[in-house]
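[job 4471] stage=fold_predict status=RUNNING
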Amino acid sequence: MKRSFEVAVSLEIHYVFGALLIFHTLGNAMQRHFVQELEMLKTNIIKMGSLAEQAIAEAIRALLERRKDVAHQVLAQDQQINSFEITIDDQVVDLLALQQPVATDLRFILAASKINNDLERIGDHAVNIAESAIQFTDLPEVEPVVDIPQMAQITKGMLRDAIDGFIHTNATICRAVLRNDDIIDDLNKKVVRELVACMRESPGTIEQSLELIRVSRNLERVADLATNIAEEVIFMAEARVVKHHLGEQSTGS
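[job 4471] inference complete, writing structure tokens
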């Protein structure tokens, strides 16, 4: 009887340890899968960001160099950005529904979802600029092209820094992006003011000036979206909301 009891206890212990080992193995496998899914999400955001950055740069080049062929390439490549948006949306939904992430991982996924939307909109603004470039190429030149090149340079830098901040989870880089947003707002107002004056003085430049105003406003929106991305990176890195300067009030800055 004692022997049978000992055997039964031994078997029960064996089954318990076996079950624990299975659960431990499954848990590790699920964790590895979750980490892989997060890395894939980050990789897709980086790829999409690179495409958006390239689209803005090429759209501006098409405008300044009066290159219709480059502008049409921007229009054609917009579908790639749209495809990434759908893929990333699906990844975010799957991660939230199946993994139930918390803390840092949850902040990363929420930030990635918003950045995904911002990048898609940046792609749309690149298309708008490319369309203006096509129209502008068919019109007589306006000299100089006011402050558009400077605006474009700063805006491209803001977008590049925001994406770099995301890649390296670097809030310091992203705070510099936030500071540059006011510079772009001021340049946009200056461009509009100068082009309105140009149209008054030379009615023959109205079409060209209107296209440049459209470009300026699109660049200003890209800068706003780059600022949004930078704010999301700061949230992701520090769990601090800095939209409308809410997060800065606690630091006294």
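[job 4471] summary: Residues 2-64 form the longest helix (63 residues).
[job 4471] exit 0
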